[in-house]
Structures are given as C-alpha cells and as structure tokens.
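Subject: Sanity check before I submit

Could someone independently write out the structure tokens for this chain? I want to compare against mine line by line before I put it in a report. The sequence has 173 residues.
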Amino acid sequence: MKLVIWMAALLSLASCQIRPFAKRTPQDDSTDLAHLVPHGSIDSTLLIPRVITEPSVVLFWLRAADTLGADDRSDTFDDLKYYTEQVAPALEASGIKLLATNADTVYVSTPDAKRRTILLSGLDYPYGYLLVDPGGPERILTGVYADQDLMDELRAYFDLPDDSTSAQPRVTT
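---
Independent answer below. Compare away.
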C-alpha cells in the first residue's frame, strides 16, 4: 500500500511542469495622465519614483485608486485632470514644474545633496497633489480640489501673487 502511495506521489510530481515566471514589465500610465508630464521629462514611465530638484507640483494617481468603482474612478480622474489643466498655465508662468506619477514614493533632492523620501501610499485618498519646494517642507493635498481651491493652496505654498491684485487700478478723474 505504501508503495502505491509513493508511486502516485512520484507520478504526480513528474507530471507537473515547471513554468518560468512571466516577466512583469511596468505598465505605462494612461495617455491622459502621461500628457500632463512636460516634454523632456527625465523619467520615461510614471511608475519610476521621481527625484524632485526644483519647485514642483506632482499629480499622483496610485494603484490603490483601483478600489473605486469604474464610474467613480473615471469621474474622479476626469475631475482631477480638468482642475489640474486649469491651474497649469499659472504654474508654468511661475516657473513651477507640473509632474505626474503613479509611484508610491517620491524623492526630493535637498540643498545638502541628500534625498528625502516622501511616501504617498496610505493617505486619505490614493490621488491628489504633492507640492514640493526643495529645502522646505512638502505639502500633500489628497483628493480632488476645485480649480479655485487648488489655486489658493498653490498661492499659499509657493507664495504666488494673487491675480486680482496684480492689475493696476484704473484712475478716473
């Protein structure tokens, strides 16, 4: 009886085929998110953790956003993209980079040639904005911010001028 069990076990093992693990290549981000990255970016995919060396706004959309329903995920991404596009001209005019990432980690290059690690996973929402000015503390805005609210946050963090006060008053006599 033991011989029969051993033979069955050997036959079972012999019939198993060893298959090599499929190579996983990181998937590129969706075209919509990728177009938010300025041309000439040093990272070829948005899954590679970014190294921030200058004042930047990093739009992040992590894999954990997959837990949202398909309709909610699509609506949320569309809103995030729309409001980001509304503030993009102000960022460009102020010399602030607009970057995008799907990576859970972002590195900030500090003035003393070290790197500070910022983890984006485990936040209230798996999408939002990371405001970075190397040499200072970062600010993480999770969720979707309407364009005016986002602009208020950007003005406060980067000390941007308020558009309403930049126009010269009209003098009438």
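---
OP: Matches mine. For the report I'm noting this point. Helices lie at 2-15, 31-34, 70-93, 147-158, 163-166.
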